[in-house]
Design brief:
Radius of gyration of chain B: 24 Å
Strand order of the largest sheet of chain B: 1-2
Largest sheet of chain A: 7 strands, mixed
Largest sheet of chain B: 2 strands, antiparallel
Number of strands of chain B: 2
Mean pLDDT of chain B: 91
Shape of chain B: flat
Distance between the termini of chain A: 69 Å
Oligomer: heterodimer
Radius of gyration of chain A: 25 Å
């Protein structure tokens, strides 16, 4: 056996090390896209159900412009979010992405240079094609508390809102008028009682997901406190023990007392809630406009209608719904293909492409002209976009929001009464204010 | 005795370099970086990190009751696993060790659940427990327990954590079973034969031969069970997401939640505290087993 030379082994090891080191230290800015594909605009998204439609449009775009665009899917959305965070740390973001963050975190992305300012491009007439509300969450005003340069930073691909779907057949079965769903809270509770008497679970939603229970409660928070009341609560001027906050928790207690909730609602994710509603095991569900596509795929013969969350007669403010931009895209501020990315997004949000997406994915397009081409049920949702919440200039600490949602769950399962729940939320608020 | 020359020693050392490099990059660096981050306020995106010393540790220890409640939840699952899961694993290992027919089939069957993906197992059991569609309620109703119709096992405070623990035990007992079976097979038969000659019955043989011989194996299984149960995540994530109202939250779900909300510094501080707790428990366990061995 020939003797191995130590020098050769060391050289080989050094070479290997150098190869890894060089590849690791290469310029990877915006690499989600750069690795050997200079002309490819890369987009990361999480909307698996739209991949086919996206690909058809990118093929068309390639034929028209010669620019190749690739949509890569990473789902579910929390996995996607983690991937984006990790990619940002390593300067490996693709050309177009969505940080899946609240405004505070979005501000961090912008200030770190990961997101490009699209104001100039938008002011060139582009922003006029969108629903106004769809741009709010992607825009920063003068003097915003996060210190971000005022402007528009994101491009809405679609808009969405959350409403109540109701099963017309089950309504009929319980002796309710399917063409006149409940409008007031009292009618809603009364309908729930009749449904329960008929052996039907009245209401289901993915309340195991914090944001969904929060979105349902938010309609009543806004209705009882108004925008300024919510801002004052965030500032600590109105405590969570205030009678209006207590009323929000009492609404959930009333629903619980009247056996409105479907079995297992507090640990139910939205997908399970969608299945429960689609299979006729619950008569009403609180869900987003994307549900239309979901229910179509789960049960195409489902006979349902749409209604607003029931209003409170004693509320000081009108009832608004959770919604606005559905999914937005942001251009990587470090990308060498920034201009190509913006050009693609401009093309992508034009009426023909948006109408194609609406038709194929049953989502409400962000382009308000395309919204005119929608089927009736989507039109209902489309109208509600004007009744969504305004953007808040500041946000509640996420820990407090999380505490609100957990305590709403506690009220639903009868662990706490509303008084105890609001006291505990206030306790967390005080802890966060001291932090 | 032939001793290696310095040149040969250097040459030999080169062979551990790849493994050392992997260890440094994928184990040591992340560990040190985690500890470092725990002293900073950082959201994972900002280019600047703010050094705040032990402030996050102080907050977790004195002002974060939810984290300690999640620790208790994990401890409850661990306790069930240490007793029921390991008890069952030992019982089955003893039965299979008696050279019964189809011994290998049992081994495969019992070892199947541990190799399945936690998320998949969680989703399947979620269907089983489901109040609306679940097989469990259907079966219970079929044998006369009508009160369980529509009963949501994962949404009731009294049953949620135990229901998840049952799944964890179902999924995990196969590991303990294989290790315990391997341990039982290392005990020389001569010991049992000699005991039989001396008139010892089966129970006496079990208490005086099997248990003392198995103490190192019990130690290993116990430590693995504690580490596995305390670090439970995938089942909770897929079955309850920590609900109802945080009653099935465990330390890893809390760490994940904080990290997902851009609290990188805080969540790494939680991870360090959690790691220290596990380290202390493991050291205590090793110390105790050494005492027993003596």
């Amino acid at each position: 056996m020939s003797k191995v030379n130590i020098g050769t082994v060391i050289k080989a090891f050094c070479m290997l090390f150098a190869i890894f080191a060089i590849s690791g230290c290469s310029d990877t800015s915006s690499t989600g896209s750069s690795a050997g594909s200079e002309d490819v605009v890369k987009i990361w998204h999480w909307m698996t159900d739209r991949q086919e439609a996206f690909e058809k449009l990118t093929e068309q775009y390639y034929k028209e412009t010669g620019v190749k665009v690739v949509f890569e899917t990473y789902a579910p959305s929390d996995v996607y979010k983690n991937k984006i965070t990790a990619a940002a740390s390593g300067h490996l973001l693709p050309d177009i992405f969505n940080p899946q963050s609240d405004k505070k975190e979005l501000a961090s992305y912008i200030k770190a240079g990961y997101i490009a300012d699209l104001t100039d491009a938008m002011n060139d007439g582009w922003k006029d094609v969108f629903f106004e509300k769809s741009l709010i969450e992607n825009s920063f005003e003068e003097g915003n508390e996060w210190g971000v340069k005022p402007g528009i930073y994101g491009v809405p691909l679609d808009v969405s809102s959350l409403m109540i779907y109701y099963n017309k057949d089950l309504f009929k079965q319980a002796g309710l008028d399917p063409e006149n769903p409940p409008v007031t809270w009292a009618e809603f509770i009364e309908a729930g009682k009749k449904l329960r008497e008929a052996g039907i679970q009245p209401f289901v939603s993915g309340f195991g997901e914090a944001w969904l229970i929060g979105a349902f409660a938010a309609s009543y928070e806004w209705s009882l406190l108004g925008k300024q009341g919510i801002i004052d609560t965030i500032d600590g001027k109105i405590p969570y023990t205030d009678s209006r906050w207590l009323k929000v928790f009492k609404l959930f207690e009333e629903m619980k007392d009247n056996k409105m909730f479907a079995s297992g609602i507090v640990t139910m994710v939205n997908k399970d809630a969608e299945r429960t509603f689609a299979t006729g095991r619950a008569a009403m569900t609180f869900n987003g406009s994307w549900g239309i596509n979901v229910y179509k795929s789960m049960n195409s013969s489902l006979n349902y209608g749409i209604m607003y969350p029931p209003s409170l007669p004693d509320a000081q403010y009108p009832l608004l719904v959770f919604g606005g931009d559905g999914s937005s895209m942001f251009v990587n501020g470090e990308s060498p293909r920034k201009d190509k990315a913006i050009a693609f997004l401009k093309w992508f949000t034009q009426r023909p492409q948006q109408s194609f997406l609406a038709e194929n994915t049953l989502n409400i397009p962000s382009n308000k002209e395309s919204a005119q081409d929608l089927p009736e049920v989507l039109q209902e949702f489309s109208k509600s976009i004007t009744r969504t919440f305004d953007s808040l200039p500041k946000l509640e600490a996420w820990q407090v929001t999380n505490y609100i949602n957990l305590n709403l769950q506690s009220v639903i399962i009868g662990e706490k009464d509303p008084v105890r729940a609001v006291n505990e939320v206030q306790g967390e608020k005080e802890r966060q204010m001291k932090k | 005795m032939i001793t290696a020359t310095p040149k040969e020693k250097t040459f030999n050392m080169l062979f551990i370099l790849p493994a050392l490099a992997l260890f440094l990059v994928f184990n040591l660096y992340p560990l040190l970086r985690t500890i470092q981050l725990s002293f900073y306020q950082w959201n994972g995106i900002d280019k600047d990190m703010v050094f705040i010393g032990f402030a996050q540790y102080k907050h977790i220890i004195f002002h974060n009751p939810a984290f300690w409640k999640s620790m208790l939840n994990a401890a409850y699952i661990t306790l069930l696993c240490l007793t029921l899961q390991n008890g069952l694993a030992l019982l089955l290992a003893i039965l299979v060790n008696r050279q019964i027919r189809g011994e290998n089939v049992y081994r495969v069957i019992f070892f199947l659940p541990p190799v399945l993906s936690g998320i998949v197992v969680g989703l399947i059991w979620k269907f089983i427990y489901d109040g609306n569609f679940g097989i469990l309620n259907t079966c219970l109703a079929a044998i006369g327990f009508d009160q369980f119709k529509d009963f949501a096992w994962l949404s009731e405070i009294k049953t949620a954590l135990s229901s998840v623990a049952v799944v964890h035990m179902w999924k995990g007992f196969g590991y303990g079973f294989i290790i315990l079976l391997a341990g039982l097979q290392t005990i020389p038969n001569e010991l049992y034969e000699a005991a039989e000659v001396d008139g010892a019955d089966k129970w006496q043989q079990f208490v005086n031969i099997t248990i003392p011989s198995m103490i190192p194996v019990f130690t290993l299984v116990t430590i693995l069970t504690i580490l596995g149960a305390m670090q439970i995540f995938d089942l909770i994530y897929s079955m309850t997401q920590g609900g109802p109202a945080g009653h099935t939250d465990v330390p890893i779900t809390k760490i994940y939640q904080f990290m997902n909300n851009g609290e990188f510094g805080y969540s790494t501080a939680m991870a360090v505290i959690f790691g220290m707790v596990l380290l202390i428990v493991s050291i205590l366990q090793l110390y105790t087993s050494k005492k027993f061995n003596k």
